[in-house]
Amino acid sequence: MSKIFMFDALRAATDEEMEKDLTVCVIGEDVGHYGGSYKVTKDLHSKYGDLRVLDTPIAENSFTGMAIGAAITGLRPIVEGMNMSFLLLAFNQISNNAGMLRYTSGGNFTLPLVIRGPGGVGRQLGAEHSQRLEAYFQAIPGLKIVACSTPYNAKGLLKSAIRDNNPVVFFEHVLLYNLQEEIPEEEYLLPLNKAEVVRSGKDITILTYSRMRHHVIQALPTLLKEGYDPEVIDLISLKPLDIDSISVSVRKTHKVLIVEECMKTAGIGAELIAQINEYLFDELDAPVVRLSSQDIPTPYNGSLEQATVIQPSQIIDSVKNIIISSKAITT
Q: Residue ranges of the domains in the chain?
């Protein structure tokens, strides 16, 4: 076991897959000589050359389209968005090409493509650099969507994403790159379609992902001290949602709290509520509650920015309220 930062875990996954498979390449702004905006590709250009770690102009639509074409013709490109917000400029390519071509070609083309990079609400990065795009991409048929949350799952998930023959949008949170964790030195892979039970419990199911996993963990000591026993599930796979794992938990706890950084309107939480109500309505002792970011552009002001994102104290209060209200309903 070795203790490494999350950006190093992502770099190691990329390095190992590039060494193993000559078709794997990296494309994006400043991924080469600069080493990536968060050092995920640091020094890889000196090992693999400037054509396998290709610095591009500031033209997201163009180089994403180029990567899709490269995937169709046999390469396995990794597109880094310097900030995932910039990939809105490539939305047409991701939607109309990456998501559709395997289907519209009748299966004649595969698209082994990873689109990865930093996203989420950082620290005073401004509205344009603090967007949460997971709900934007969730509506696109043909994509897989993954949100890593720890160095361990970041490495195992990225290696699996690179080997997958479908386009994978891989979300990394800008504030988790310096998170440290011990991970195995031997190779391992993690499934792209499975949630992780972070903590088993019997009182309530807390569904979360990305940075909010850590806010939930911060809330746990207080909840445990006060006698509550929550089960915590990191979704990891945002598309498809692992409804099987969610179902097992809900049938045990009968109560659900969703904690996300996504916007409340049409966010990941909204889709979760729809599926839980569709498949598990009779298992619920209380309505599903979601804690989501406010539906406003993220403020630059630090205090206002913090107020838009869910905090551990809100998670604690919500767990208590749901359990108390469910007892009142059932009695």
A: 2-183, 196-330
The whole-number average pLDDT for the span 312-325 is: 95
Q: Answer yes or no: pTM beyond 0.90.
A: yes
303-317 per-residue burial string, b: 16 or more CB within 10 A, e: under 16? eebeebbbebeebbe
CATH architecture of the domain formed by 196-330 = 3-Layer(aba) Sandwich (3.40)
The residues annotated with a catalytic role in the active site are 60, 129
Q: State yes or no: cis peptide before 240, omega within 30 of 0.
A: yes
Rounded to an integer, what distance in angstroms lies between the CA atom of residue 92 and that of residue 229? 45
> Contacts from 64-69 at CB under 8 Å and sequence distance 24+?
64/90, 64/93, 64/94, 64/98, 64/115, 65/90, 65/93, 65/97, 66/27, 67/27, 67/113, 68/93, 68/97, 68/98, 68/101, 68/111, 68/113, 68/167
